[in-house]
Design brief:
By secondary structure, the chain is α+β, with helices and mostly antiparallel strands. It has 2 domains: 3-68 and 81-107, no CATH class; 111-198, Alpha-Beta Plaits, CATH 3.30.70.100. The protein has 6 helices and 4 strands; from the N terminus they run ααααβαββαβ. Helix 5 (139-149) crosses helix 6. The longest helix is centred in the N-terminal third of the chain and has 28 residues, at 3-30. The termini are far apart.
Amino acid sequence: MTTGKLISTSIVSAIAASVCCITPVLALIAGSGSVASSFSWLAPARPYMIGVTLAALGFAWYQKLWPLRTSECACSDSERPLFFRSKTFLLIVTIFAAVTIAFPSYAKIFFPKTQKTVIVTGKTNIQTVKLSIRGMSCKACEAEINHEVNKLPGIIQSRVSYERKDAIIQFDDSKVKAAEIVNAVQVTGYKVINQSFGN
């Protein structure tokens, strides 16, 4: 496989490895929460995509650092390679792949911090709902759901976990209803599959 094909493969696989986490950030920027979970089906393939990226980049670096010498080549060693075939370009692609693969670990910085004002209410109005959510695969998913839920009035606290696939939300039911919270989650494209109430 040529270096160009290896570079293309590594770029595509690096993007594919993190597209499920990039989409919620793009949805936030575009103001279209419904596409946030569009690529969550790719999450199980992430380790394989990372493996393909690393293998393609490793082989490209191997070819660049230890090129095969052929006696049929009539070209001069003194000719400078095109930029797209240079070590500099391969280094840029390697850095791009690393930043893209690491995206899930820093994606939450793109979501604005929601400062909630303290809600003074009677204790009898405070409710807690636990939502089981399908489709979350990284911190960006958590941040997208938290962002949408905290737009609602009456939200006291929201804790979303992609690892547990749930959200625990404390709210004032005189200002917001559980159905509105479920709707806010589902607007992002993730699916609420179960809800339970507790204290």
